[in-house]
Fold Thiamine pyrophosphate-binding protein.
Amino acid sequence: MDTSERLVESLERLGVTRIFGYPGGRVIELFDDLPESSIDLVRPRDEREASVMAEMHGRLTGEPGVLAGQGPWIGSLGLIGQMEARLASSPMVAITEASERGDYSTIAPYQQSRGDYGGLDLPNILDSVTKEHWFPRTPNETIRSLQLAFKHAVAGRPGPTAIILDGDAITEEFPEDSIPPVWDEETQTRMWNAAPTPHDVAAATEALESAERPVIVAGNGVHAANAYEELQDAAEAYEAAVVTSYLGKSTFPETHRLAGGVIGSFGHEGANQIVSEADVLLVVGCRMNPMDTNWQAPDFIRPDEQTIIHADIDPRNAGWVYPADVGLIGDAAESLRELAASGGNDNEWAEDRASDARESFHAPECESDATPILPQRAVKEIERVVDEDTIVTADSGNNRFWLLNYLQTPAVGTYYGSGGVGGMGWATPAAVSAALETDKHVIGVAGDGGFSMTMNSVETAVEYGVAPTFVVLNDTSLGMVRQMQHGPDDISGVEFHDTDFVRVAEAFGAIGVRVETPDELGDALTDAASNDRPTVVDVRIDREQDMAETLQSSFYASVGGLHE
């Protein structure tokens, strides 16, 4: 068989059921063989949206989402999903190509991306974003590279990998007897989970058992390891309050008696206070980025006064930001399972303190009937239709911080946000990907700026027969930046034309609804959940509600506010 046929056969053996991509260049050879396979192609309107869909697939399933397309565009438009995957630890494999033109590849190149003189350097571009990349030059290398790309995408801290197809490496006949041998996909990609040492588990257990105010900070690593039950078991064993990072939101039900909310610069004040009051902190799968740590406000986390246990899949990350007293190196599920089985605690602090902290999920504005709709009330209307069988995807900008603070998730795996690299335009294609992968109702929430960037994904949802709800929190501006102004027109480019998203939705074949009152929003969201077509809900929100002023953490304010 041709190498392209063997490549598709390998993808089937690796369990791939869906590829997100756009045909072009030498990837056409791959796409030419897909119709005879069991693999479905999801072809959005551009590589950017395909990359986000692949990243979300990996985030949801723990299996690499596959992105495929022509080299120059996977290395440009398609980088947004790969960057998010790198910093949000989502397994992903990009299959791309160098647009090589045989004997003409070194002569005044057109789209040539091998990195030779005069051309683009796609390997260098991908090297700056992916965990690993391969540039196979023979059929044998092509298949081995694909296998290794899948293995490395999930090995250790998950992330994006890539293979770059080139000339004969994809078009030649695949040899029957390969030298060196090409092993079968299951054997070559087999993985094993790492676990912490008994010595480190014992040290962590001793610290947690003696704690009077134990707190767990759960990060995205809990999502990546699917360690939800293990987290709850450990929290209940040690009666520890649980807070999360932004990317860790919905790793723990925020309605649980030990749940304290989300930490960070624009997180819950109650959650931040819990962390500052802890005597023992167990940090699980969280890189503790500046937003998480309130830009290292000195009164927030204090290594000289608090015992810090850091559990991470990568030994380099334990103690990366704050010195750790104990490192638990291994898969988050393994570390939490060992802790839950090895000890326990009984204190009177955590449950009461977590209950107080959860008050941060509510504010008087959440009940306001004002028009334009207050964003706090808009989030509470969304919350009313969110149950354990709902997934919410959140974009970047003000909308995600309103959601972070006022959407109290009822179950694990119900909320995912653009918080790795934090690109605008993520939520809409991510919602489509989640709807394709699950039977759950999916709600994608974005501002009008972020929605406009990738609203073509609404058409993709229509084409592929899924029906997410897309909520546009519309203030006809780039709200977060606009609110950074010191005076009117202080920053250029923050005002948007008032786009008619209802007509846009209808043009795509979806349902469009414009709402201007809280009751209208509640009705629209209820109706959307039962629609058999995607619904775009254009929510006219009060643009004067200042997110940063309203939600800024007291610890963040103590270090002078905005540092981005």
Q: What stands out?
A: The CA atoms of residues 202 and 342 lie 8 Å apart.
